[in-house]
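Hello,

Following up on my earlier ticket. Below are the two sequence lines again, exactly as submitted.
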Amino acid sequence: MTDHALTPRERRLRRGLVALAMACAVLVLVVIAVLVYWRLYLLGPSGDPFTRGPFVIRLDTTGAALAWSIEGTSKVELTAAGPDGTVTATGGRFTGLRPGTRYLWTASVGGIGRAAGSFRTAPLDLRDGVRFGVIGDYGSGNDHEWAVGRTLAAARPDFVTTAGDNSYLVGAPQVLDRNIFEPLHGVMLNAPLWATEGEHDLIYSGGAAVTSALHLPGPRGRYVVRYGPVQLVLLGLEAGAPELDFARRALAEPGALVRFVVVHRPIQPGNPILPVLRRAGVAAILAGHLHRYERRTVGGLPEFTVGTSGEGPGAAEFTKATPGAAVSLLDYGSLLVDVSSASIAYTFVDERGRVLDRWSEP
Amino acid sequence: MRWPRIALAALGAAATAAALAVEPPQTFAFTGIAGIAAFVLAAGCLAADMVPYRPAHALAAALSLADAVVLAVGGRAIGIPVIVPAVLLLLLQLAPAAAANWARRAPVTRSPDAPGT
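Thanks for your patience. The regenerated structure is below:
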């Protein structure tokens, strides 16, 4: 049968079929083009395989350690780039690093870099200085905590210490990502978080959940850490009789050039621990609990209360300024401590990045 | 020969010329566009060969449809040089006419009692 043998109706049918088939082909091409464009340029990258971290948990003069949680059993390759080339971690731990040196670390899963940060190994002395951050009463997961986390991350501290109440209302495992790891993600990529524990942490399993999640060296927020020449003695909830013995032993350890004591509840005048701290040459007491930023002198020692890193002041009658405080503020923020061989400088930076208090001692 | 098949043959010839004259990867710009256009034309050709139904032409159109996809992706999907789908596209348009010609020239065997013997 030829074209001429077709009836006019059949010819119309054929023309319609041809047009329909070509339109369908164009449609198929358009759909393919949209799918390809969507896949290549609109869809985001595949999701983060890490359910927590990686975050720096240990730093000393020649080593560092990171921890993380990941979905499934994917293998994580951890490398650090430094002045001597690339170092590969074993079991999340780097060894054989240079003191006082910044390393850029990368965690790869399936051959793709999925997280990166940096850390600075502890120096042997204070020639290049040490900077650390102090926060307290922060773990509420609100906008203020996120803001404080951002400013603190931008300050690039070598480490961060917390004065407790790391998670509100309780330090239960289910809320630690919301209250600690997510708001402080940027900080914890680059600096270990050495936390003491307050009432809200201890009320759940005696603080074990916070201790375990942050890989803290001791229970109930009571332990000692060294970052090269800087020693932190973390006492936990308060400076009572057991803490006095603990502090005496810790402060007797040789080697540290500068010592700080971290405790949740501020130490009050007349506390028997004060002469011990003064004799040991403690540079300052770092506390929380009161939801204010305060600077005052207690028993001849500077004491900084940093209780405004997230949770907020609450009712005025419970957040009264301490009599005799040189500075007492309700602003959200964190304290930066710059330790050098010449002086120690304390800078309180609020959540908007403004310096609200600055003080130093030779 | 209907116009979609003529256009397909022209596309096949142009793609063959591009594959010969232009080095990869620049040639993929030409063959990619030719493949996309050939895909649309081959779909129309296939529909046209259904009314009236012409099996050899329809088969050639269906093969052209698949060949157009290979041509559009530059042969990379199945790891062959782009000249192959380009030449194949041209040959597939000539094949139905050649087959019909060959069938007309083939000797016809008539039975002894057929009318006219």
